[in-house]
Amino acid sequence: MTDTLLYGRIFLPQQRLEALYLRRLAPTRQLRIAAVSDSNLNNGGTILTLLQNDFGKYSTEYMYSTDSALMGVRGLYNFGPGPRDASTEPLAAEQVGPVDGRFSAGAELYYGILNKSGGISTGVRFATLPNHAGFPYTMTLTLNPLMGNLSSTYAVKAGPNLALSSRFDFNFYSYESELQLGCELWRIRNTTDVDWAIKKLRPDWKRSTVSPDDDVSGVLKARVDQDWRIGVLWEGRIKELLFTLGASLDLKKREQMVRSVGVELQYSS
Question: Whole-model pTM above 0.85?
């Protein structure tokens, strides 16, 4: 049976409408169509179509957008064992020693038919595998040679409920740079009493196999850059109600430190 997902939401009072159509055409291929209707956009909206292929070892993506009739293609290749069979696939010839990380490289090429301009970018990534003995971390480096933009990121899971990250952007032509630091702190539901009751009823009780994500009741996200602009976001859930609270601060502007405050509510049944 073919899997299909339909999704839509409206923003008030901006009168902005978003829609998503997602369909799995094959086990390794899916079609994604995203549309936005907004009077502030060119032609009153835009449609983005993506054809995605994921074979584990490598993946490809073909894109078309009605905005400037933009066409593009992307590719990603994973060196060493594939993501889906890292524990069973033999070591590749280019690997030496234990398999505790994966190196990936990718590139994208795009061209706008209406404005007759295009671009190209490349990137590399290294991420640790589950059998890595230390803290899990990910490092990325992307380069856009036409625009002169270089971006590097580093993210590490510093604890069971804490993740830290950093991003550095640099432009070769203007020599402008930007540094951002961020963190995520997850709130885990207290299941001690439930676990104790299960042990009393079932002496042969073992650790639950439920994914750790099922125990997360909220997450706090924060970021700061070199100009002391701070962003704070709290995402939580109360039964079927999903809520998001956010604020943007500028510590250099003492007369108006609070730049913006936002609230988002979603209902999931």
Answer: no
